[in-house]
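Supplementary Methods, section 5.1.

A reviewer requested that the exact input to the structure prediction be made available. We therefore reproduce it here, unchanged from the version used in the analyses.
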Amino acid sequence: MGFLDRLWKAISEVQFGDAGSGADSEEVRKHARSIAPVVWLLGKTGAGKTAIVAALTGDARAEVGEGFEPCTRTAAFYDVPSEVPLLRFLDTRGLGEANYDPANDIAWCEGQSHLLLVVMQVADASQHTVLRILQQARSRHPDWPVIVAQTGLHRLYPVGVGHPKQYPFTGGPEDETHALVPHALRQALAHQRRLFDTLPGRPPRFVPIDFTAPEDGFPPEDFGLEMFWRAVEEAGPEAFAALHFARADAHSDHTRAKARPLIYGFGAAAAGAGAVPIPMVGVSGLAGILAMMLRALAVRYAVAWTPSALAQFSAATGGGALAWWALRYGLREVLKVIPMVGAFAAGALNAAAALGVTVGIGEAACVWLGYRRRGLTAPNNEVRRAFAEGLAAGLRHAKGRTTRRSGARL
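The structure derived from this sequence is encoded token-by-token as follows.
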């Protein structure tokens, strides 16, 4: 039996048998959580933290109760995506509430985090509670990136005025004199920024944003989102880049667009399995992760996999490109028997291949499941094109991950 046949057989066993049906899924999820960067959201009640999570993820589940995993009585994780996270938001209870002492929560959250995202309603001049906690955390972590999201811009617009046609803010002193920015808003932005003058460590990055609902009447509802993406990507965690990359294709159907972060999450997990420097461990790990991804995508599309359906899908993806990449993956697994250098070099190569193949199969599955949901059969050429494009995109992202990590080490 060839490598490709063994791979699909292993996927089928996980999908329809007992192999890895529960424990493996939880193991993958735990591993993803252990390596996903944690962004600590810090701000007062009503500052807009939840709206930021929803805008960054494109997922309406970003509301307390659904999508959140409690970690203390007053703080919660939001995993993106929830099944196998690329990124974890740590949302604390709003500061400044009556009869709430945040000391224990703050100490716990500080030990989990990698980046601070401070959220401030620009019309709220009283931020002493937030600043006090930020000062203490930054004194212990002077190298932590700090992004300050100044939210609710429309609250300081004159009556009848909407957002400027072009985003006018730079995050620098130019914002205080820009003619397109209303005077009251310029003053409020400047006041809040001066509060950070004594913050230890490198200066924070300020990004004015305004995320509103359609009924508020301030289009676009995600004003400043692109600039915010740029700020958080530059701040460090590569998972932000992955999420942005995953959501970049505006031509996809809505379900497919929302499923893409899930695909990249499983891709990152597959890359971890491929990097294991033990011969053939990566093969079974890749099969299990692919099966979990296909199962999760089927839930998103409300379509059930059957043995015959999986066989049809595997045939629709085409033997050519997938078999070639499977062969390369298998050969690299054999290379892992070479002591030290061979094992780790092959593991690094397989990490990229596993990410690419996972994204390719995930994209192909979205096309196939989309047709299946409508009671139709997906044209093989569309499925194969989706696989090829997803494979190429996954490999580009894998290359970008390597480049960013190399740059970080330098």
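Residues 3-30+244-409 form one domain. These observations are discussed further in the main text.
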